[in-house]
């Protein structure tokens, strides 16, 4: 427990450092960093609805953050949560507009399609690594682009609304929409409970299942695992399926809970922010909850900061970048790339 | 010319050359004389200081004491570049080539022409062709190195080393990666180089090669000169005695076990024609072995003769090309590492920190590594693991194997080498396997920990298990083996003569050149 506390303090210091660095940049740009921070804070926490909106953003960040954490802990460097989120959303948007399916079955079908789409997207990278020796870091990044352009192409084509008025999809069936949380005017949906439950399940997955334990061991030393008889490649493929599938589910939740239909941009980069979320949480599933909430707040407050303090929302990306760099420097990203 | 050789100034001399790493003297007061037109072999076991000596001559390390004389004058060789400028070339044991570049580009890389800003590729091509013709090296300057076989890659290294009229060529175990035919070609080239009055320093631990090619042989043992022999003075027996240090004080485990009393005629492990070829060029060549219950078959051998590869085949980590493996009566050739373990095979891999333990997991998790998915420790329909079961059995193992230390939850990394090996031993033999395969099981351990490991292995033998004990430590092998063998060039030879010299000579002999 003492060790956990120490780690938490280190991560908080890391975050504080990131905020100071970005504040310095605001200063250099000739603006008042304190005005910027206070605008950001009031944008995130100023009203009850603003606060609920932070949770709305936390939902996709938590799920994609979990996707990244599962992959990274297994030594599979999935940088493709963004692409997997997008194909999950495509699957939800495509299956969600079908008609004539009983509601409960339709729910299941949408979720299964989103999970499968994300899982396949990630598994493709694992396949390329095992069959062709291609680094999954590169292939998952490239698959992000393919997913983004696939979505753009689809909403201009097959999945474009029937009226052909705009490059967006038709609304999904009304009964598929996730129930609202927090009353009228709230953007928060029941998907947040799914995300929180997933974080708890992830925690127990690593501690209490054989597969989860094997993945942790493989992430730490794949060679010793091979010598101990753990089927290393099969386990990594499992990690890729879970990671991609969860990122795909995040896309499903976004369509079902927030957007209600496909747009040609369904993600403001959740899958990328997810990397910072996961690293700040040191890849611990439970620590993802505060970490995702924090990045959700930064994201939600940034537009207010832009309006009131005149500081570009890009600043939030600077904080993400510093968190990732500092994590890399502090050894959390120590890449164990010994091939098996 | 031959007659006048002795009268000339030596090309290179060392006097009292000493190099320490920490408190360990890797090289201690070495006096070496290398004449022009001489092939001078340096013979010694692993860790005898051969490579350290070469690194000093090539400017990679700097001596702590002693001097190097180059053509009779005091020379401080600052760096490999400095060594090259003086006319010293080196071919490392592990190739230092850029695979994606051509032969000419690799040669250019070693000898950048600092007078020109742009690379002079045409000149590099011309030079490669010239070297290739003059020395019969058969190199295509435009071939990409990654497309070349190992023998040709070595010729590229040689071309790099002699591209600027090297007068001294150092080769660090050059034949380790070569086929017999390639080795013969290399020797022809070295002899031709000698005719041109260049000197060659040839490092090896293969005695027959050394006897075949050398004009002079210097033997190193534990950093010291253990003898220097002119051509004709040395025989396999005198060299083996010098290399292994007959009669010197021992370094390994003083256990003095009684020979096994319980050996049965039942085979615990049988290998039938086990062969495999590895990407690094090592091959395991039709190994036949019948290991009985209650005996230790101890295998000596110099590192790099296939020990690592053989162990990985037995463990089920790498597949074999042909042959079969039987545990007791059961054919396990097609079974994976975990299935073999379940059938009673324990493994102590050669590199315990890399292949044995997951250092960043807790000690109890390492003890459970092979058993985490086991049925008896599952709950809730088989999905959930019962952590308490694992922790309890880990606590028992730690007590039984006397691992005193930071407790179950500490990371394996926090343990000493001896305790790490005990944890590994506990995991692999804690459930009483029928067969234990141990590679370098006492390497790097202090005497106390070594004795402890050996005692437990002897207990396991006396309980009726078959032990395959693979080691580079000849004394240890002779002491604990009920039967002994030698692994050389990927072949296993059983030795019925337990004579120190005979086994030592077998360790250092490759049959490849004799045939």
Give the topology.
The complex is a heterodimer of chains A (340) and B (515).
Chain A: H1 2-28, H2 33-45, H3 48-73, H4 81-96, H5 103-132, H6 136-155, H7 191-208, H8 210-220, H9 222-227, H10 232-259, H11 270-280, H12 288-309, H13 314-329
Helix pairs in contact in A: 1-2, 1-13, 2-3, 2-12, 3-7, 3-10, 3-11, 3-12, 4-5, 4-6, 4-10, 4-11, 5-6, 5-10, 7-8, 8-10, 11-12, 11-13, 12-13
Chain B: E1 12-21, E2 24-34, E3 39-43, H1 50-57, E4 65-70, E5 73-74, H2 80-86, E6 88-91, H3 103-110, H4 121-135, H5 150-162, E7 168-172, H6 180-195, E8 199-204, H7 207-213, E9 216-221, E10 224-230, H8 236-244, E11 267-277, E12 283-292, E13 296-300, H9 307-315, E14 322-327, E15 330-331, H10 337-342, E16 345-348, H11 352-356, H12 363-367, E17 378-379, E18 384-385, H13 387-400, H14 417-429, E19 435-439, H15 447-462, E20 466-470, H16 474-480, E21 483-488, E22 491-495, H17 500-507, H18 511-514
Helix pairs in contact in B: 3-4, 3-5, 8-17, 14-15
Most extensive interface between two protein chains, with residue counts: A-B, 19 and 29 residues
The number of distinct helices of chain B, counting runs of at least 4 residues, comes to 18
Largest sheet of chain A: none
Summed over residues and divided by their number, the pLDDT of chain B gives a mean of 85
Cα shape of chain A: globular
Number of strands of chain B: 22
Percent range for β-strand residues of chain A: under 5%
Q: Can you write the helix and strand succession of chain A as a string?
A: HHHHHHHHHHHHH
**Largest beta sheet of chain B: what is the strand line-up?**
6-7-8-3-9-10
Q: Report the end-to-end length of chain A measured between terminal Cα atoms.
A: 34 Å
**Rg from alpha-carbon coordinates of chain B:** 26 Å
Helical coverage of chain A, percent range: over 70%
Structural class given helices, strands, pairing of chain B? alpha/beta
Number of H/I helices of chain A: 13
Portion of residues within helices of chain B: 25-40%
Query: What is the alpha-carbon Rg of chain A in Å?
Result: 20 Å
Q: What is the global morphology of chain B?
A: elongated
Determine the structural class of chain A based on helices, strands and strand pairing.
mainly alpha
């Amino acid at each position: 427990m003492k060790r956990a506390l120490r780690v938490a303090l280190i991560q908080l210091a890391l975050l504080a450092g990131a905020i100071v660095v970005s504040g310095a940049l605001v200063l250099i740009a000739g603006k008042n960093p304190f005005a910027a921070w206070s605008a950001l804070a009031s944008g995130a926490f100023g009203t009850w609805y603003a606060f609920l909106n932070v949770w709305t953003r936390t939902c996709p960040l938590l799920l994609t953050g979990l996707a990244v954490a599962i992959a990274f802990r297994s030594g599979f460097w999935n940088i493709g949560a963004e692409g997997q989120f997008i194909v999950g959303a495509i699957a939800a948007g495509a299956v969600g507009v079908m008609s004539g399916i009983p509601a409960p079955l339709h729910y299941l079908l949408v979720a299964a399609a989103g999970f499968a789409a994300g899982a396949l997207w990630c598994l493709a990278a694992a396949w390329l690594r095992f069959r062709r020796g291609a680094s999954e870091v590169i292939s998952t990044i490239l698959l992000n682009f393919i997913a983004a352009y696939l979505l753009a192409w689809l909403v201009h084509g097959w999945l474009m609304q029937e009226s052909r008025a705009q490059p967006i999809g038709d609304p999904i069936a009304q009964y598929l929409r996730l129930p609202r949380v927090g009353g009228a005017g709230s953007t928060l949906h029941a998907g947040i409970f799914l995300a929180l439950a997933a974080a708890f399940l992830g925690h127990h997955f690593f501690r209490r299942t054989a597969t989860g334990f094997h993945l942790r061991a493989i992430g730490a030393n794949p060679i010793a695992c091979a010598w101990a008889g753990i089927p290393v490649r099969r386990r990594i493929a499992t990690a890729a399926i879970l990671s991609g599938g969860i990122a795909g589910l995040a896309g499903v939740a976004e369509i079902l809970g927030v957007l209600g239909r496909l747009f040609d941009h369904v993600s403001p980069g959740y899958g990328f922010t997810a990397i910072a979320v996961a690293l700040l949480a040191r890849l611990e599933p439970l620590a993802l909850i505060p970490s995702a909430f924090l990045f959700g707040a930064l994201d939600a407050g940034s537009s207010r900061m832009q309006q009131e303090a005149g500081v570009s929302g890009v600043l939030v990306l600077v904080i993400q970048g510093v968190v990732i760099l500092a994590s890399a420097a502090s050894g959390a990203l120590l890449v164990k790339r010994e091939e098996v | 010319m031959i007659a006048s050789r002795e009268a000339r100034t030596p090309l290179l001399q060392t006097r009292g050359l000493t190099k320490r790493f920490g408190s360990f003297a890797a090289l201690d007061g070495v006096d070496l004389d290398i004449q022009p037109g001489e092939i001078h072999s340096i013979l010694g076991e692993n860790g005898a200081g051969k490579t350290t000596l070469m690194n000093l001559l090539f400017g990679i390390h700097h001596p702590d004491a002693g001097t190097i004389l180059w053509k009779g004058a005091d020379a401080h060789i600052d760096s490999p570049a400095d060594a090259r400028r003086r006319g010293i070339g080196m071919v490392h044991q592990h190739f230092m080539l850029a695979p994606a570049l051509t032969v000419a580009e690799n040669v250019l890389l070693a000898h950048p022409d600092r007078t020109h800003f742009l690379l002079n590729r045409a000149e590099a091509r011309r030079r490669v062709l010239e070297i290739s013709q003059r020395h019969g090296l058969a190199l295509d300057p435009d071939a990409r190195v990654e497309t070349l076989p190992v023998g040709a890659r070595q010729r590229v290294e040689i071309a790099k080393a002699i591209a600027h009229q090297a007068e001294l060529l150092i080769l660090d175990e050059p034949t380790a990666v070569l086929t017999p035919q390639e080795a013969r070609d290399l020797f022809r080239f070295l002899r031709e180089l000698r005719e041109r009055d260049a000197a060659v320093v040839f490092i090896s631990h293969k005695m027959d090669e050394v006897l075949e090619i050398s004009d002079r042989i210097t033997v190193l043992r534990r950093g010291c000169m253990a003898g220097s022999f002119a051509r004709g003075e040395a025989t396999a027996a005198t060299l083996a005695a010098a290399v292994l240090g007959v009669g010197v004080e021992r370094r390994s485990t003083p256990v003095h076990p009684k020979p096994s009393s319980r050996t049965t005629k039942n085979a615990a492990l049988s290998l039938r024609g086990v062969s495999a070829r590895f990407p690094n060029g090592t091959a395991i060549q039709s190994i036949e072995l019948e290991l009985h219950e209650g005996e230790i078959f101890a295998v000596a051998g110099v590192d790099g003769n296939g020990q690592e590869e053989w162990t990985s085949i037995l463990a089920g980590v790498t597949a074999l090309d042909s042959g079969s493996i039987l545990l007791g009566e059961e054919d396990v050739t097609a079974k994976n590492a975990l299935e073999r373990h379940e059938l009673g095979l324990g493994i102590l891999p050669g590199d315990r920190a890399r292949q044995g333990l997951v250092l960043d997991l807790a000690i109890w998790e390492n003890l459970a590594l092979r058993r985490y998915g086991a049925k008896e420790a599952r709950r809730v329909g088989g999905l959930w693991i019962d952590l308490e079961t694992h922790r309890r059995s880990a606590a028992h193992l730690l007590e039984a194997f006397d691992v005193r230390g930071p407790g179950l939850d500490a990371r394996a990394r926090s343990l000493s080498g001896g305790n790490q090996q005990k944890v590994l031993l506990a995991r692999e033999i804690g459930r009483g396997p029928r067969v234990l395969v141990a590679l370098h099981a006492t390497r790097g351990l202090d005497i106390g920990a070594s004795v402890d490991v050996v005692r437990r292995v002897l207990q396991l033998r006396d309980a009726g298990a078959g032990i395959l004990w693979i080691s580079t430590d000849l004394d240890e092998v002779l002491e604990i083996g009920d039967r002994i063998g030698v692994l050389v060039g990927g072949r296993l030879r059983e030795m019925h003569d337990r004579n120190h010299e005979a086994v030592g000579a077998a360790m250092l002999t490759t049959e490849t050149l004799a045939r």
